[in-house]
Amino acid sequence: APSDPDLVARARAAKEALGDRLFILGHHYQRDEVIQFADVTGDSFKLAQQAAARPEAEFIVFCGVHFMAESADILTTDDQKVILPDMAAGCSMADMAAAVQVEDCWEALTEAGVADVTVPMTYMNSTAAIKAFVGKRDGVVCTSSNAERALNWAFERGEKVLFLPDQHLGRNTAVRDLGLSLEDCVVYNPHKPNGGLTKQQLRDAKMILWRGHCSVHGRFTLDSVRDVRERVPGVNVLVHPECSHDVVSAADYVGSTEYIIKALDAAEPGSAWAIGTELNLVRRLANRHADKQVTFLDKTVCYCSTMNRIDLPHLVWALEELVAGRVPNQITVDAETARHASFALDRMLALP
Ligand code: 13P
Ligand code: SF4
Questions:
Q1: pTM
Q2: Cβ of 215 less than 6 Å from ligand 2
Q3: Is 279 in the pocket of ligand 2 (CB under 6 A)?
Q4: Which CATH number is 217-296 given?
Q5: Ligand 2 mutation pick, 306, 308, 309, max ligand atoms within 8 A of CB
Q6: What interface predicted TM-score (ipTM) does this complex get?
Q7: Going by C-beta distance under 8 Å and a sequence separation of 6 or more, which residues neighbour residue 109?
Q8: What is the DSSP letter of 115?
Q9: Which family does it belong to (predicted)?
């Protein structure tokens, strides 16, 4: 639907009033009505880099989800304020790993005698507390665009990796990119004693995968891939690595949102593409590439409901509050957590 013209005018006016004091970041899964106001759009990695690259901006309005805004707060200076236009924009995957559960897991690894040869690694899609846990134990953060490099780094440092919280990104990276076998991976279920694993299983495994997943990417199945190949002959199947290993193995190309955008830009006119990621992005790609056939990998509609919480009314509200001299919905990470988390985040940003 087209954006409300009144709200568009108000967002423009507020942006202009704030000038260089304001910097708006937008994740690729944001609605069209919001993304049009972003100064920079990107995948999680690019947005983390960009947040750190604007020390002169007083306010960073983050159009994305809570864990991204937390990371931006950690990576920016103490004077900068990070604002999330709707506090309910969380991430169900990040919520699947709580710090106390991860402490219990580490205890299980310790009892199995393998904690000191295990490197903890967390996907960006996790709370600041989880990043701090990882930083405290000399581990690393990754995003979907640098998971291979980060995992290689981790295996240079230890014999095993505890990968949090997305089992699919962990498995896909280990098997597809590093050549490990599926048998090298075990899944730690935080709702079972000792993760539902024996000490021997923890000793034998190379990758200990946290039992977390993305509910949006979980919608794509092997059948979705088979169906689209039948419906659209010659179609190129391009999916995000948060999809299951089955789906990723059946796809032609796999990568982060930024990778997906670049792949479509480079695609031949007339070529056909089925994209397995969030729908706001896929619709934008279909509109931008009218000379290519771009379809959604699933037959049903599937947005990320929390990404979609950030809509134009919330953005306008946040901007107008700033104009009025108030700071709404500021995201702050306490100093101790930030210190440890930034260690693991900086290590990611410094990966070759
Ligand atoms: P990227 O944009 O880094 O590919 O991440 C996808 C995602 O699910 C963010 O929540
Ligand atoms: Fe979280 Fe998945 Fe939404 Fe990304 S798409 S914010 S991983 S629920």
A1: 0.97
A2: yes
A3: no
A4: 3.40.50.10800
A5: 306
A6: 0.98
A7: 115, 118, 162, 202, 208
A8: G
A9: Belongs to the quinolinate synthase family. Type 3 subfamily.
